[in-house]
Specification:
heterodimer, A: 291 residues, alpha+beta, Hypothetical Protein Tm1070, Chain: A, four-stranded antiparallel sheet, 6 helices, 17 strands, B: 246 residues, mainly beta, 2 domains, 9% helix, 45% strand
């Protein structure tokens, strides 16, 4: 699920590596291991469509792609299916602003859900490559890339989430740059209906902190908040002793959220300088450290 | 320096530093950013040591930085203050001060970010990439698409994340059309352990303009040994620099 920004050329790309195969022994092994962790009904529900589509495709190595376009409030707008399929070694590329115009969608901020004909439900190598989002604003190019995953998210029947904690140590609030956090209330369930309401703490190097309401994120929607939106203009003075630098810790109980970190010029969010997705590094600790 | 943690020791203890590209020159400076997330999740023992190692493009050690981080401790490190005019790799590890047992066979790779500041207020971001490897490893093919209209400005940064002395990275590059047709192939220059190289697309494939023709995009593919996931970049004549991992 990717954001687009009105007035900014937004491109989506996906290069399928030459080595990609829809199924191999490692994948089969992880499917079996995953099934053993579920009950019989859920296993059948997950595996039958997966294996049936594999057989129906003749174990084809080619992938097909579809895009669903949503408003930032999570409302469905349109669907676009790429007319051809793509073999390993080839790349899918689309300029989304042009697509929106061809679909008669007004210029606006959107969310795009990319769907591949084949995903992998395993935790290991879920994605054969990374989706690439490129935002071009004259000669400023901001890119982020992230994998495609076929896993249950915010879907109660399969997975109950403890909550979301997103950490951004790249916060800047200066006369030149203002950081934003963009959170997506995603789900693998099309009927998903829960709003999220995170809170954010802005922490500076000496440990002093401010806390703010991030605001409501509708189901399947997204919300971008700059540190000025959240904490007001006082944020500049607050971070000034530390060269305008700080960290945010954003938390929300009961749901998992996708999190993007944006650096924008201090011009009321008109220019996007840099973008990156957050890392769940701290989450990995849970499975690695022995207590 | 005495008291410095050796990078090999961090790897052996199960906290391999994660690598990123380092660039400090007249065009770009690199800021390393991290937060002590151990303190969010391990309330009883929140303190960590942040270790940062710097290497130049030839993999020669170029500096070391250490700081203790407590509860909600954070780091926004201007690496150009420590190693100005050094471009290569940076590797970082957060290691808990309280000895913590790891599950057998597991390791903790540090999550952190770099911000690359360039001319005209441009800033580009990357999260950490692969952990430093103690032994040579194969690199399966990584491929990424680029915009043809920025062909002259485009290129790749390759980082060798292997610290073993025999871990020189070797590999091949392929210039690909978006439909998967191979337009060109060549060997990559060797990169020393922990070193890095920034290579323009036209330096790799001088004839790329003719080979790509009128297509809106093209792709580059890299594979070989000891190459961490590559970074694509665009560097414009006005000094704006944009980089991102494949």
């Amino acid at each position: 699920m990717f954001p687009t920004f009105a007035g900014v050329e937004s491109r989506m790309g996906f290069s399928i590596p030459a080595w990609y195969r829809p199924i191999d022994i490692r994948y089969l092994r992880s499917l079996v291991a995953g099934s053993l962790r579920k009950n019989f009904r859920e296993t059948v529900k997950d595996l039958v469509p997966e294996l049936a589509s594999l057989v129906a495709s003749g174990f084809s190595k080619k992938l097909r792609f579809k895009l669903h376009i949503l408003s930032r409030n999570g409302e469905y707008r349109a669907t676009y299916e790429f007319p051809r399929d793509y073999a390993p070694g080839s790349s899918v590329e689309i300029e989304l602003s042009r697509l929106f115009a061809s679909l008669k969608l007004p210029q606006d901020d959107y969310l795009v859900i990319a769907v591949m004909s084949r995903g992998r439900m395993d935790g290991f190598r879920s994605s054969p490559a990374s989706y690439s989002m490129t935002y071009v604003d004259q000669d400023n190019v901001a890119i982020y890339r992230t994998g495609a995953f076929a896993r249950p998210l915010n879907e109660g029947r399969l997975k109950a989430h403890v909550g979301f904690t997103g950490i951004n140590p790249k916060i800047i609030a200066t006369s030149d740059i203002v950081s934003s956090v963009l959170l997506i209330n995603h789900s693998s369930d099309p009927e998903y209906a829960h709003s999220a309401r995170p809170t954010t703490r802005l922490i500076r190097e000496d440990g002093e902190e401010l806390e703010a309401d991030f605001g409501e994120i509708p189901p399947l929607g997204a919300r971008e908040m700059s540190v000025v939106d959240m904490f007001g203009p006082r944020v500049f003075d607050f971070l000034k002793p530390f060269s305008g630098r700080g960290s945010t810790v954003t938390a929300c109980a009961g749901v998992t959220l996708a999190s993007l970190h944006l650096q924008r010029t201090n011009d009321n969010r008109r220019t996007l300088l840099g973008i990156e997705h957050s890392r769940p590094a701290h989450m990995n600790l849970a499975g690695i450290l022995q207590h | 320096m005495p008291g410095d943690l050796l990078i090999g020791e961090a790897v052996a203890r199960g906290y391999p530093p994660a690598v990123l590209y380092l660039r400090n020159d007249e065009t770009v400076t690199t800021e390393v950013c991290a937060f002590n997330y151990f303190s969010v999740f391990m309330k009883d023992h929140p303190e960590v040591d942040a270790h940062v190692w710097f290497f130049d493009g030839a993999g020669t050690p170029a500096g070391y930085f250490h700081r203790e981080l407590g509860i909600n401790g954070q780091l926004q490190l201007q690496t150009s203050d420590l190693c100005p005019q050094v471009s290569g790799t940076v590797a970082m590890a957060l290691v808990p001060k309280h000895e913590t047992k790891l599950r057998p066979g597991r390791k903790v790779t540090t999550g952190y970010y770099a911000q690359y500041f360039s001319q005209h207020g441009a800033v580009t971001l990357s999260h950490e990439r692969e952990p430093v490897a103690a032994a040579p490893f194969p690199t399966s093919a990584w491929m990424q698409s680029y915009l043809t209209r920025f062909l002259k400005e485009s290129g790749v940064v390759l980082v060798n994340s292997c610290m073993a002395s025999e871990g020189v990275s070797i590999g091949t590059a392929r210039l690909m059309a978006l439909d998967g047709t191979e337009l060109g192939q060549r060997a990559l220059p060797e990169i020393a352990p922990m070193g890095a190289a920034r290579i323009g697309t036209l330096d790799l494939f001088p004839d790329a303009g003719r080979l790509i023709g009128a297509a809106e995009g093209f792709a580059l593919e890299f594979k070989g040994t000891n190459i961490a996931s590559p970074f694509s970049y665009y560097e414009f004549a006005n000094g704006k620099f944009s980089l991102h991992h494949f």
